[in-house]
Amino acid sequence: MTTVAPASWLPSLLAVLSANVAKVGPAARFLQLATINVTATRPHVRTVVFRGLLLSYPSGSSSRSTLMLADHLNDPNELKEDASTSLVFATDLRSDKIAQLAASPRVEACWYFAHTRQQFRLAGAMRVVPGGDSTEVDANARAALWNAQSSAAKRAYATTGPIPGAVVPPDFSAESSSSGNEKDDQPSPHFGMLVLDVDGVDLLNLGTTPQIRTCWTCSSPDDGSFQVRRVFA
């Protein structure tokens, strides 16, 4: 077992992601996210879209953070070894997963890349970034994520739009629920950013015989270093 720098798993993930996006397009950014419903004591899994990375670089006694959107992640070599890295997703703050994350922030994501036949499982704690009481860093990242959404995606968060989980009325019309006149220059109060602070990664390579897993486990929360080992699947 070897101890390596923070986010040492990230270049592997980005290289695989880049190869698959080039082959199958943006659908390669879809992955499955599992949360726990504590009340019902059962897992919930849904497909989410990878939106980018929140990178934190140490700088003396403080740190600086920046959001790199998924469309701009072209060169894994641009990432510095001392960066701690979180995966970023968008969410509606009215959805069921927000209450689930409040009760139990531990999650696992499963990301299968069909073109290269590789699977990443990423475990960690998920933070929910709403509007209002967020830190300046989180607020700026949330605003940048909002600005990167398409107009159609922004309408899904409209204050006058349907509420996630609400029963669809018999006379519902998609046209009548349109919020085309609602301003979208600022993030909707229903728009949230999810930040997955990864502390465990399991890469399964299905293209080898025998199949090999590479496992990264966070060994020191203080400096974000990981231990890595390779095992047979």
Shape: globular
Mean pLDDT: 87
Q: Main sheet, how many strands, which sense, barrel?
A: 11 strands, antiparallel
The number of E-state strands comes to 11
SSE-based structural type: alpha+beta
Number of helices: 4
Poorly predicted runs: none
The rounded Rg comes to 19 Å
Percent helix range: 10-25%
**What is the first-to-last residue Cα distance?**
17 Å
The SSE order reads: EHEEEEEHEEHHEEE
The fraction of residues in strands falls at 35-45%
Written description of the protein model:
With 233 residues, this protein is α+β, with helices and mostly antiparallel strands. It is 17% helix and 41% strand. Strands 1, 2, 3, 4, 5, 6, 7, 8, 9, 10 and 11 form an eleven-stranded antiparallel beta sheet that branches. A hairpin with a 4-residue loop joins strand 2 and strand 3 (42-49). The radius of gyration is 19 Å and the shape is globular. The chain starts with a strand and ends with a strand. The model has no long low-confidence stretch (mean pLDDT 87).
Question: Secondary-structure blueprint of this entry?
Answer:
Blueprint: E1 2-4, H1 10-24, E2 30-37, E3 42-49, E4 52-59, E5 62-69, E6 84-92, H2 96-103, E7 106-113, E8 118-129, H3 136-147, H4 151-155, E9 191-205, E10 212-220, E11 225-232
Antiparallel strand pairs: 1-11, 2-3, 2-7, 4-5, 4-6, 6-9, 7-8, 8-9, 9-10, 10-11
